Amino acid sequence: MPVDPTGADLKRFLAEDPGGPVVMLNLLQFREDGASSYREYSERIGPFLAKVGGEVVHAGDLATALVAPDGWSWDAILLVRYPSREAFSAMVADPEYQQITGLRTAALDAAVLQAGVPWPI
């Protein structure tokens, strides 16, 4: 299972932009001993988030699944709010950010990275 978006994924992500803020859902399944690599990635991403106006909404381990398909299992969840899809794309295109993405890639066995559009509540 791929864990990083491709150039084509990012083009589609921008093309389908409804405008406004985006909350990125990250469901993470770590490789054996991958949690420490992801922890280092998490510690180093802060300045890149700040630079584009992003913020971590929630980060934590996942526990008991009450409703899920058989075999469905994720280790952690991360929700990150960005002011726009362009902001997210600018962050992942930053050459300095790209120097730390290897930590994330090496940490993960599987991932879901999906854009969420906030409801007007």
Automatic annotation (TrEMBL):
Q: Which Pfam families match?
A: DUF1330
The DUF1330 domain, residue ranges:
35-112
Q: Which domain of life is it from?
A: Bacteria
Which named protein is this?
Answer: Uncharacterized conserved protein, DUF1330 family
Upper lineage? Bacteria, Bacillati, Actinomycetota, Actinomycetes, Propionibacteriales
